[in-house]
Amino acid sequence: MxxxxxxxxxxxxxxxxxxxxxxxxxxxxxxxxxxxETDAAEGWGEAAAHPxxxxxxxxxxxxxxxxxxFAVPALxxxxxxxxxxxQSSLARIKGYxxxxxxxxxAILDAELSAGGVSLADYLGGTRDNVDVGVSVGITQSVGxxxxxxxxxxxxxxxxxxxxxxxxxDVEPVAAVRAAFPDLALQVDANAAYxxxxxxHVSLLDEFGLLMIEQPxxxxxxxxxxxxxxRLRTPICLDxxxxxxxxxxxxxxxxxxxxxxLKVGRLGGVLACRALHNLCVERGVPVWCxxxxxxxxGRAANVALASLPGFVYPADLSASDRYFHRDLTEPFVMTGSxxxxxxxxxxxxxxxxxxxxxxxxxRHDLEVNR
Length: 369
Ligand code: OSB
Ligand code: MG
Prior knowledge:
This protein is an alpha/beta fold. It has 2 domains: 3-116 and 349-365, Enolase-like, domain 1 (2-Layer Sandwich); 121-339, TIM Barrel (Alpha-Beta Barrel), CATH 3.20.20. The chain has 14 helices and 14 strands. The protein has helices at residues 60-77, 83-89, 97-115, 119-123, 142-155, 170-179, 198-202, 221-230, 244-252, 263-266, 269-282, 295-304, 319-322, 352-357, and strands at residues 3-21, 24-38, 42-46, 129-131, 134-136, 159-163, 184-188, 212-213, 235-237, 258-261, 286-288, 333-334, 337-339, 361-364. The strands form 3 sheets. It has a 7-stranded parallel β-sheet. It has a 4-stranded antiparallel β-sheet with strand order 3-2-1-14. Helix 7 links the parallel strand 7 (184-188) and strand 8. Bound molecules: 2-succinylbenzoate and magnesium ion (MG).
């Protein structure tokens, strides 16, 4: 394929309610879409980074700059442009997995659209619907959390993830567990604890949680290994796993028993598929994480989650859990599941009037050869 145009589209999409984690609060989702036109077809991707370098090192302004200054020039000078070659063409650029994922997704969408193949079929998805859950932010009070979880349960969610941090952990988890004794429940600390908190974190072991996600710092495999040995509850890594190699090292260190696979953290859906295959081979259960993506990134996530090794419900909710108006046709939940898009490519279309109404900033990159 030949790249004829690359456009970056930045949209500030209001969230239905603020989303608070241990590293900050988002009230608006800062979305970066990548739009490519090739000689074969057009394609869309989403670079799902955080607006500040608080989740990992990447942030949206930096993703844009890296795409414009380094990634697009690298693709233009590569000997060939195919979705399969994007990763290796961009390998010289260290880090910026969300930027790489967004570009790869757009090129995949173009390539598969031209070939009439859906992303799920291309990846080897085996399900038509994927089990999903909801990730619930930190609230002002424990009572507010129980009410919020209750409203999600009423909406049909059967798996709930609670964000926790020091000062908001055992008490809220105990309250939600008491109110919903049979709910599939898990927690995510986004690296807010240290090994000094080992005893405190171990108090979470009595609530029958599906897993505890990333309690310690991304580079603390040793700490996670100690916790994995100490607790009955499975330990899941998110921020620590940034590549196939780091995943192998985490497994060798026995630092987790479950992995969260996230497109914007691992550098694209193809890297996620590769890690999924490794985990299947090793018997490690995985699930699909999210970054409050718009319908563009969500379409890719849902296709990915249709692969057979994704055995826990995904952190992918219906569009209306995030936004009043999504940037694509909305994802709707039925029976705690989302349907896997079956159209060519991502299988969703970008709503140009939504982009205009939301005053999206569109930025055409130089692609002259
Ligand atoms: O750690 O999984 C996380 C959102 C932003 C940054 C990090 C995380 C999250 C989520 C959101 O938990 C999950 C979703 O997209 O619904
Ligand atoms: Mg997480």
